[in-house]
Design a protein that fits this description.
Blueprint (H helix, E strand, L loop, with lengths): L6 E2 L10 E2 L6 H9 L4 H7 L5 H16 L7
Antiparallel strand pairs: 1-2
Length: 74
């Protein structure tokens, strides 16, 4: 999956936080809902403009961000 088809960052929308394209729904919000135990279907019901592909794109985005994390020794 190419998350860039579903997620964008624009400094004029939500201060540049990554959001679902065409919305103000942040990737952070979707990930938080999933972490709280919501299913993809729950999120789709809460936000009718969101599809399963959007939820999967958020997970892919998080995976890519984490894979580029740099850990420095203290």
């Amino acid at each position: 999956m190419n998350y860039t088809a579903y997620i964008e960052s624009n400094h004029e929308i939500m201060l540049g936080k990554p959001v679902i394209k065409g919305s103000r729904i942040t990737v952070e919000l979707i990930l938080k809902k999933l972490a709280e135990g919501a299913s993809a279907n729950d999120i789709i019901l809460m936000y009718p403009n969101i599809t399963e592909l959007h939820v999967r794109a958020c997970l892919e985005y998080a995976s890519v961000v984490i894979s580029h994390e740099l850990v420095l020794p203290l």
